[in-house]
Write a structure and sequence with these properties.
The protein is α/β, with parallel strands linked by helices. The protein folds into 4 domains: about 140 residues, tt1808, chain A; about 130 residues, no CATH class; about 220 residues, no CATH class; about 270 residues, no CATH class. The chain is built from 33 helices and 28 strands. The strands form 6 sheets. It has a 9-stranded mixed sheet with strand order 11-10-9-12-13-15-14-16-17, sandwiched between helices. Strands 1-2-3-4-5-6 form a 6-stranded mixed sheet, sandwiched between helices. A 4-stranded antiparallel sheet has the order 18-26-22-24. Helix 5 runs antiparallel to helix 6. The termini are far apart.
Amino acid sequence: MYLIMTLSWNEIKRRAIAFSKEWEDTSNENADAKSFLDAFFNIFGVTRRRVASFEHRIKKLDGHDGYIDMLWKGNLLVEMKSRGKSLDRAYNQAIDYFPGLKEHELPKFILVCDFKSFRLYDLETDRIYDFTLKEFYEKINLFGFIAGYGNNVVYKEQDPVNIEAAELMGRLHDKLKIIGYEGHELEVYLVRLLFCLFADDTTIFNKNTFYDYISGRTSEDGSNFASVINEIFEVLNTTEDKRLKNIPEELAAFPYVNGQLFTENLHLAGFDSTMRDIVLKCCTLDWGKISPAIFGSMFQSVMNPVERRNLGAHYTSETNILKLIKPLFLDELWSEFEKSKNNDNQLKKFHQKIASLKFLDPACGCGNFLVVTYRELRLLELEILKILQKGQRVIDIKQSSLCNVDQFYGIEYNEFPAQIAQVALWLIDHQMNMLFSQEFGEYFVRLPLEKSAMICHTDALEVKWEDVVPKGQLSYILGNPPFGGSKLMSSFQRNQVVREFGGIKGAGVMDYVTAWYIKAAKYIQDTTIKVAFVSTNSIVQGEQVGTLWGLLMNKYGVEIHFAHRTFKWGNEARNKAAVYCVIIGFTVGNTNDKRIFEYEDVKGDAHEVKAKNINSYLVDAPHVIITSRSYPLCNVPEMSFGNMPLDGGYLLLSDEEKTEFLAKEPQAEKYIKPLISAREYLNNEPRWCIWLVDANPSDIRQLPEVKKRVAQVRKLRSGSVRKQTVEKADIPTLFGEIRNFGETYIVVPRVSSENRKYIPMRFFDKNFIVSDTCMAIPNGNLYHFGVLMSTMHMAWINYVCGRLESRFRYSKDIVYNNFPWPKNPTAKQVEAIEKKAKKVLDVRTEFPESSLADLYDPLSMPPALVKAHNELDKAVDIAYRSATFILETNRMEYLFDLYDQYIATLVFKKQLPKKKNNTIPK
């Protein structure tokens, strides 16, 4: 019997990593198989020739001699092949040798290998394990029988960690909370379990140490599960020399962790069989493959969905995180690496530089941005060390690796995600250390944990960021602060925003995220710190632009150095909260390298455009702030709001209600008018109103059904808390606000789908009543209609218009009154626009059964209408300039420049030459 001097698992792992590195380029069976297998056994402290023989001869069934590449009688048979050869064929060859072996010589395992790929067959359990040379150290426990660790224990093949893991942790959270284990202790408990699950799969613990202990030491009913878990927590917090001498060997196998993670004493939790099963099921998932996105999903699954939006818990794909960190700093660092890599001294200085960088996420959530940033920094460090260590046989990777988690700072409102963020950085640090181990052939693990990220559990808008990290030490600020709009904020949050803005006009309707922009701008004064935030695109649209960017640029000297224009922000979480976002990078003072990332499809990939300047609308154009105007910038008809009923619906009728109403009171028909409201107007749905302007009082008295409705209007207005509404109770026969638009006018819906290429507008006459869901342009003519229905005007809308969710919310004071109309168009140009506008209207009449919503749906828009609009676009474009506009951004650059000219001169020239006849179509 061969006695093995058992090596520690850490030593075996170290040797396995070195083995993988040494043999990574080997490929030939005949030349290298024997040396390879000798080295393989040496990993486990075993001299191969003392247990196994090469070229073991046996007699095959066909009478010919066969030669087994390597046989350890009763244990292991190995068949080697040259790289790329079939492992299935190698296995079949091995099986063919069995009839020539005696009973006691039959192996328990077959290993087939082509130097790059391994396949281990466990013949007693019928399990098969596939892995590569690079992954060998992760599967080292499968060969415990070689090292003398007794029988190989069979474990279920693990599934990659996915959303199931988040759901399982969420279920455990809920069950512990139900029994009264909640709050801070519950959160700490779950974070500790998370660490143990990860450690069990990533060589922090010996493989499956955690699973073995809790599955083997606990009752199936879960009655002693909590006490066994606490035993593990206590051991993880105790140095080896301070532990009791008589604790079980399996418990002593857990390493000392430190890092304060297991320091706090927690009350004993309570488990039942279901809760025990949840934890054991978690163990079957491969936590070693965890990605930062999982932390977001995990956190979402255990939070109240209502709270999630309020507290800004948006969970982000790594792809979207990279959209921010690459232009913020990563691209620049890689460029500097390329310039330094051929000069060792410069490269060493560069290495010191990246190790000195410090990062702050002031709304860090579960730490996704910090985790991905750290991972990318370590990957860059790996490339540096590959060059600096080239040619060295022995290196001390622990001393050579300079980057660490203490370069990272975070602020998080909720305690649970703050704890996860800190642990997540330790986990990604270990993953990167394993990658370094593979590359340099030296086992590299940082235990006990000596350094940690500084994650502060507090309100980012209530704490001084200087107290978290002095700004003289900081390099970058990044993240995705809470997205909530003004209507979704609490009064406390709204007051926070107003305070950050210094109480300026308009601060009360700003999105919550804008407070982070202002706070960051104050913090980075007199520094070179660069900032980048993800935000909803509302902060570069509508009225928010003037309030936010006017303050940032004019008071704090902020300049935008890169921007991702609007794209759909996805995430890895359940019930994805997809929103339309921008990413904006800024700093104090100018920068030479400015980049804009454009999206032809908001769900697609971006293409990069170099910019001379990036304004507050994220366009390469002069700094322009569009603020509310009470009258148009150019000489065009004024736009007006529609009529506001203020009636509680009592003066409004659907088509069916109108029929029923007139059946009861046919005399009221002369007071029933067609009502134009945005939804019905776009979808050809008839809508009516009781219009009593200039009605004879005696008529009203003789119409009891009308009187009933008028009485309800009076009651509604009288009961209002608004003084203005109560005053309107004295005239209940009329709409709350009434406007006269004359004989004909252009109607513009206030809200329209962002999917339409054009906002559908239309002419109406005085027989229609326009509601306040639409805007109207009295005296608007074909020229005005043509320009407003053009791609030029839509470009202006896309950039300047505010949004209701993702839909356009047209504003007369921001959009219409500031729109720069063509400068001094010729009579010929005006006539061309009128002609093409008339063509658009004519084509519409060819489809009487189709609504405007049908006609302007991108998927159903008739080719004839598409052609008519293309011709109109060309006519309008020529009125602006002769050169062709290639991209929408080209249009905006031109329009912003034209707007700048109009504002600078304040000379409003007449836009429309006199014409003999300026007819309006019916």
